[in-house]
Design goal:
The chain is α/β, with parallel strands linked by helices. It is 36% helix and 22% strand. Residues 9-272 form the Nucleotidyl transferase domain.
Length: 308
């Protein structure tokens, strides 16, 4: 196999309208909703940086200016904190602007994830790149993206992250038909089906929001017609690449992820994520968990008192 180019760039699609969180997202991007005291999108960028990707392209849309502001310097705020001697908050404010080299491109209209990824073509060029969806947060203790980059280095082609779900959940995701390799956590993808019925699903392994793409995906996306929902699906392009020869950038592999994933794409999962993160914060956990136990105890008592 020819030398495989290293993965150095990350693409983060962040142009969605966030309709599930209205009215909060009427003027605030859903990516900026806080997980305790840090916006969700910062955790995603930190994950990319931890995997060695310090060149990050954010694909944004209208009303997303606050994302750019968050990753920029805030000189007046920094000066005010410095004057107060508040070094702890000063460091927290500077952290986001020092994370990575940030770039931005606009997705003019919401035409799907495939279209959002294609918007990165000029910036990415002929290099492989990672795609991280802002709705999916991977626990920093689980090095999923690093493992995916390793798989790309070993097998070439493109790599997707897979999680196993119950059969009744496959219809909400892209689902993979898989073949084993010599490694327990890496499989070869032979087919991808977007939101199949449980009866039609080729497996219980679904694609979650992490991808490492060969640059060949751009030519495929250019020719990919709109699919489900009238949108250009990245899944459809990867399905084509799964049948493409390796010397043309083809081949798709999956990393089976059995770690901790937080889905912030709907209200219930978002609330669970906030509670989980607060419960594990050294500066908050003791007081928060004491309050939470008392709240649950009182709530359970109120809910059962009428049945006594």
């Amino acid at each position: 196999m020819a030398d495989i180019a290293p993965v150095l760039k990350a693409v983060v699609p962040a142009a969605g309208l966030g309709t599930r969180f209205l009215p909060a997202t009427k003027a605030t991007p859903k990516e900026m909703l806080p997980i305790v005291d840090k916006p969700a999108i910062q955790y995603v960028v930190e994950e990319a940086v931890d995997a060695g990707l310090t060149d990050v392209l954010m694909v944004t849309g209208r009303s997303k200016r606050s994302i750019e502001d968050h990753f920029d310097r805030a000189y007046e705020l920094e000066e005010a904190l410095r004057a107060k001697g508040d070094d702890e908050r000063l460091a927290a404010v500077r952290e986001s602007s020092d994370l990575a080299i940030m770039h931005y491109v606009r997705q003019g209209e919401p035409r799907g994830l495939g279209h959002a990824v294609h918007c990165a073509r000029q910036h990415v060029g002929d290099e492989p790149f990672a795609v991280l969806l802002g709705d999916d947060m991977i626990d920093a203790r689980d090095q999923l993206l690093k493992r995916m980059i390793e798989a790309r280095g070993q097998y070439g082609g493109s790599v997707v992250a897979l999680m196993e779900v119950a059969p009744d959940q496959v219809s909400s995701y892209g689902c993979a038909a898989i073949e084993a390799t010599d490694e327990d956590d890496i499989v070869r993808i032979t087919d991808l089906v977007e939101k199949p019925s449980p009866e039609e699903a080729p497996s219980n392994w679904i694609i979650i929001g992490r991808y490492v793409c060969d640059p060949a995906v751009f030519d495929v996306l250019e020719k990919t017609p709109p699919g489900r929902g009238g949108e250009i699906q990245l899944t459809d392009a990867l399905r084509t690449l799964a049948d493409t020869p390796a010397d043309a950038g083809g081949g798709v592999y999956g990393v089976k992820f059995r770690g901790r994933r937080y889905d912030t794409g709907n209200k219930m999962e978002y609330l669970r994520t906030v509670v989980q993160f607060a419960s594990e914060r050294p500066d908050l956990s003791a007081e928060f968990m004491e309050w939470l136990r008392e709240f649950v105890r009182d709530h359970d008592g109120a809910g059962t008192s009428g049945n006594a």
